[in-house]
Amino acid sequence: MYRNFFYKHLRRAAVTISVCFTALIVTPGTVAAHGFAGSRFFPATLSTDDPFVNDELSLPTVSSIVTPEEGGTRDTEISLIFEKRLRQTLGMKAGRALTIFNPRADPR
Q1: CB-based contacts of 21: which residues, under 8 Å, 6+ apart?
Q2: Is the CB of residue 17 less than 8 Å from the CB of residue 24?
């Protein structure tokens, strides 16, 4: 009896989650231009973080530079960022970066 009660509620929860997820995917939303306020455009500069809440996905970005200090160390950075707009003024951002230092004296 307890097992049937548990499975009944588990099945109901699974159906509810599936319906909500499908509604989020299928429901069309309004699209606003990134960085526009009326007829004005506010570009994101290099000195500030991106101040506009938006849905963005930065697939693995790779950058590499050789620094002149200590005989020329190569710094390679691989990063991935995911941003999701939750509400008009609320967003979520998650990211990960991997930095690899390879000194010139290293035989690799």
Answers
A1: none
A2: no
